[in-house]
Amino acid sequence: MPETDVKKHEPSPDFVKHAHVDAAKYEEMYKASIEDPDGFWGEHGKRIDWIKPYTKVKNTDFTYGQVDIKWFEDGTLNVAANCIDRHLKDRGDQTAIIWVPDEDDGSDQHISYNQLSSHVNKFANVLKGMGVGRGDRVVIYLPMIPQAAYAMLACARIGAIHSVVFAGFSPDALASRVNGSEAKVVITADGGPRGGKVTSLKDNADKAFEKIEHDAKLLVVKRAGNDISWTDGRDHWLHELEDGVSDDCPPEEMGAEDPLFILYTSGSTGQPKGVVHTQGGYLVYTSMTHEYTFDYHDGDVYWCTADVGWVTGHSYIVYGPLANGATTVMFEGVPTYPDAGRFWKICQDHKVAQFYTAPTAIRALMGKGNGPVEKYDLSSLKVLGTVGEPINPEAWNWYDQVVGKGRCPIVDTWWQTETGGHMLTPLPGATATKPGSATQPFFGVQPVVLDAESGSVLEGPGVEGVLAIADSWPSQMRTVYGDHERFMNTYFQQYKGYYFTEDGCMRDEDGYYWITGRVDDVLNVSGHRMGTAEIESALVSHPAVNEAAVVGVPHEVKGQAIYCYVSLMDGHEPSEELKKELQTHVRTEIGPIAKPDFIQWAPGLPKTRSGKIMRRILRKVAANEHEQLGDTSTLAEPEVVDDLIANRLNK
Ligand code: WTA
């Protein structure tokens, strides 16, 4: 349980003076958003441009069996026109994207809104020329280069649905996502430089194509200049297809509830599911949270260090900031290359005002000491943000004192791929923060803490349970791609009438929320979300493996590490060699982020008499907390546990 009785950090009067929202305004707006969602969102929905204005605002139903979520349903718009065209008149020459490459060689690019427009229109015409139209799916498998943003916006412009696959995923993971969405075109690059090393994404895409079951084309961006192989007829260079193409592609008129993108994310069971977000509500909510959560003002340079392969990159590198006409930084590299001062050098070079990163990066950099931070002038910073996992108070304090010099409010934003945008977060001019707490709900968000067993609502302060949301908000996911049943079963079945977040949570004496982590079998490794079931299924697909169980163990920098218990098929013996082989196998099946940290050979796994693996016990053993195993009376073979304890690895 977190220590909640801690000193509050009040926003400074100076900050409050210039902030969009102070404490009183937050109360007033929050109240209005809950009492009259139609009125509130009807008004704030106007922050984006509509082709045909909506007359209906909210039409949502959380009833299990008939879950249906619609916002602004009769309005029409184009998301790319909102992120580009509408800014051209007043800020065509303003920088839209500052691109910072992996190498620190001064070749950073400033891409103006006019230039962004030209790139996106051309890209859109190229996709059209490849036969992509409204409703077709396009998979984007790119490094952090401007073309990733162009590709997303080009899809939005022509009404195609993009599905970005993180460039760190393996060919198999890419293939399953291309197959799952039946994408017509896959967009990749020859190679992606990160931390001084080039990954040949084209090679990965080639391997993926061996497993792609339908006819698809591959569009290749030239980035690293590495050697690649080529399949005539299937593969096309972007720069060749762009040659001579018009930079005028009229935006499609899309319905507010037409899908904008699919993003695959891990859950507790089965393979990753395709989270579907739609056009109108998503853009209203991401642009609004971007402005309010970061207290973004015109002229600020804003930087979110996430990758566009994750939802954070979608909502807070591309769509939210660009809808607001912001200047958004896109960084190709890693925090520690060429050295641990890289983030801070970029903040200095580009006078970054809002900086948004993950606790795992903060912890890793904290481990390098204060020197690399103090070398740079960080006086441009105004607001610091975190996302992805709970932040421990030590890291919070270091961020506050060493990076923010005690003068930048920290916004600890809790949200999920499914929620599209920030759900619990301080607003920098309004909320007194407590290290480790995501504090209070954003406008329109109604969090409830439920008793995990009974599902009853726990009222008042000082309660702990699971976090659910009582009513819809505009950027809520609408469905699982092609499987609405799965959507309802995952989020609306267990606690009827609520959206279940699958996070544990407590509400303290001030009404602040503290996320305690996932209550399902989802791991959070360096802010990357992974299902234990996916890793287990990768392990058992190896011929030597009979059974596998995967749990997370606390890790100082990564948040969690991956701990696997593996029992082998008869005829296979444990060895260091086999361990390495299994690690490589999981890397190949899923990607480097899923590589097991620990593999413990387990002759048997602790199961109940009905055959259910008792993960609680496995978690305790892995965390070296076997003194507190809890109730073991339902174990079928108690002696199995003694063996696991004797051979545990994380001592
Ligand atoms: C966790 C990332 C505590 C949480 C935007 C959630 C957090 C999962 C926070 C979603 C935070 C995210 N404090 N935990 N500020 N932000 N999480 O879908 O467990 O990659 O359910 O979305 O990350 O991860 P996802």
Query: Main sheet?
Result: 8 strands, mixed
The helix/strand class is alpha/beta
Oligomer state of the chains in this structure: single chain
Radius of gyration: 24 Å
Low-confidence residue ranges = none
Strand order of the largest sheet: 12-11-8-6-7-14-15-23
Bound small-molecule species: 5'-O-[(S)-ethoxy(hydroxy)phosphoryl]adenosine
Beta strands, count: 30
Strand content: 15-25%
> What separation lies between the terminal Cα atoms?
23 Å
State the helical fraction. Answer: 25-40%
Mean pLDDT: 96
Total helix count?
Answer: 20
Overall 3D shape? globular
Protein name: Acetyl-coenzyme A synthetase
Domain Acetyl-coenzyme A synthetase N-terminal: 26-83
EC number: 6.2.1.1
Cofactor: Mg(2+)
